[in-house]
Amino acid sequence: MEIVMAFVCGFLFMAAIYLILSKSLLRIIIGTGLLSHGAHLLILTMGSFKGSAPPVLSDGVTDYVDPLPQALILTAIVISFGVTAFFLVLAYRAYQEIKTDDMTLMKGSEDNE
Amino acid sequence: MFQVFCIFIPILAALFMPFFFKKVRSIHTGWFVLIVPVFLVTFYATYVPIIVDGDSVISELDWIPSLGISFVSYLDGLSLLFSILISGIGALVVLYSIFYLNRTKEQLHNFYIYLLMFMSAMLGVVQSDNTITLYLFWELTSISSFLLIGYWYNRDKSRFGALKSMMITVAGGMLMLGGFVLLSIMGDTFSIRELISQAPELATNDLFLVALVLILLGAFTKSAQFPFYIWLPDAMEAPTPVSAYLHSATMVKAGIYLVARFTPIFAQSEVWIWLVAGIGLLTLFWGSFFAVKQTDLKGILAFSTVSQLGLIMSLLGVGAISYHVNGAEDTVFKYAAFAAIFHLINHATFKGSLFMIAGIVDHETGTRDIRKLGGLMGLMPISFTIALIGSFSMAGLPPFNGFLSKEMFFKAILSITQFDLFNFSTWSILFPIIAWIASVFTFIYSFYFVFRTFTGKLKVDQLPKKPHEAPMGMLISPLILAALVITIFFIPNLVADTFVKPAVMAIQPYLYSSPEEVNIHITAWHGIHSPELWMTVGVIILGLLMFLCLSKWQKMYNAFPAKLTLNHLYDFIIYDLCDQWIGRFSALYMTGSIRRYLSFMLSSMAIIVIGTLFIKDGFKISFEEASTIHVYQIILIIVLVIGTITTVFAKSRITSIVALGAVGYTVSLFFVVFNAPDLALTQLVIETISVALFLLAFYHLPKLKKEEERTRFRFSRAFVSVAVGAMVTLVALSAHSQKFIPSIAEYYKETVYSLAGGGNIVNVILVDYRGFDTLFEITVLGIAGMAIYGMIKLRLSRKEKNYENK
User: Fold this and answer.
1) Are A71 and B770 a contacting pair at CB < 8 A?
2) Closest chain A residue by Cα to residue B653
3) What ipTM describes this predicted complex?
């Protein structure tokens, strides 16, 4: 399963990078969303899928999965959510101010060069 | 201790000059400055009796003792001679500047601060025994020289000249620092005396030649040797006292000092001898040849300085041969070093006076253009006399001191032909010939300088001012120098015993143990059969002939192509190469396009990681560790892939957002499948909020447009994303297949209840074992919230900002 997941993560990264390299700000933010999904899955995969029980203590179970990657991912999810929310508002404000979401047109005005 | 402190006296005195300038307006600030060099020259004069006996005095002040760096004032014959020159000529120049610079019109405090700073720096250069502090003072001379050349900073030419001299001398200084560092690595000390004492071992080191060349480059740039002399003529934009002081008597001799000081170390190498003697001779010829072309009085003197410095340099090179010969024949090479020091003193006297005369002519007539000048003899008799003395000395005529050193120069250069070390026997015949031709040109420009200015027809209508004799105060300094020119001719051996012999002993310590052993006696008359006498006679005859028909052949200078000059090369390097070409080069990749930068960064990351993986043979795939695959996992993967593809190729906003949401929910299903209930929960909630946020924000954003881009970029974009995806997969596979250390999860599983009293291991890790992560992740959320609030609420619009700026 880990082997397959490695390919899935690679695929997510590929799609994310493809979107990040596009012109519209909108696609770039979607790309960052995909990128964080890929990263989270990658952390989980690298922690291995061994063990059959979720990491919550219960009687008679010894075969828990590794809890550490899960804790890391939980932190990462929250952080990437905060950053994404900020990005979204930034894009929204940028569009309001400069009336474009085309990255190729966002090169600074003449008076700040 | 006081001896070291003396180096800093001028720079400390400089601190008070603005005060004198602002508060004591009625007295010229220069009078206060004058006290400093006069004190210093008397102070250094007290050391003369010690030095004459061949002793040296050392005084030390710790700076960074842990690195072995300290301010050391080491006075032996060589450094004392330079110190007296610096403070003595400094006193004369300050005196001259009092009458040259106007008290009310000029920014005098700036001028004297720079000048005093320079004086300190120069004293530091010649007295330092520590290479690092030597370099420190060396750069300080470059900086103060830069400030002095650009003294009239509202003139374009001043700024250009200042920048040019700065560029060239600082570049040389940097290389010299490299040489010093290499020397200190080889000898394990920064002290020059200690380096000299281990000279034979140093010569066997591989780095020896590199250090030699680097230090020589520093000396050549500072002393305006070929091809670095180009800054000196442009430095003539400085006020004349500065030209007289820095660019004839002191700073340009710092390179000479450096060569003389390091001769005991490097003289063992034939490269040193060839370079110093050869470049010196080339500079001598080149400078004297082009001096005749100049039309600016100070231009002539600048090229003449270049040429005379070349002469001294070549003599030092020839003097270094003395290291290689023993017995009777070595005396002639001793002679060369002797002549070098003697000429150095002479040059300081006559060139200083000539510069001051050029300044007087400029001051009293309003121009320095030799084509407009002429016939000033009757109007300025004293200046004419001084100029005549200086020029005749420069030309090498009796009864002036230049004659003595020119004769010694010929004698030393002739002796090189009798020497057959390092293939000198074949090429050495060129040395006296070039030297002789250069002397003829020296003769011509000396006459050109004095007679074109002071004799001939007076062109009053072309002069901006009505010419008249300079005030007496201005004439005092050149008069003193001119008097020295004649005095040295009549009592050369007194000067030699006092200054030259101890200095020669410092340059060639391997030959002497006391200055008395330098048994050279200067005589003005060598007998009718001596070749140098006839060489001088030849110089005078040919020089006179060529000077008289100067107008016939001076046109040949125009034949030289203007594009093939060294100045043109310098302009090309600085303005074309550095300014424009490099600007164009950076404009090539600094396009301002984020997509391009991202492509560069991501592709180089992918190339480096994949490359390292294969070069280091790190790629490995192993199925042993892998867990089994279930059908529902396959289904989830298929959903994920479809969702991703839809996100990428969606044509409308809604589709892409929904597809992204689908991907997110699938990821949370993955979390369910892989036994991560907390993650699944969080992911579900967050994904929902994200999708809502996306919808909210995208409602205000424009509709998705079809990506229109050139196929080339589309291709590279696809390539970069595939490369990054491949990189992630390869790294993940290799990392998964080679696990060397077991997880620390066992500890958490065992102690989660006994230590932390919790059942949910993930939650206990988050708030108990690794609570700090959580604290700061909360902070991140808080900051994001505040930033969003700020961005929406605080709207300082562009119009308002412009209004505020106005």
Assistant:
1) yes
2) A26
3) 0.94
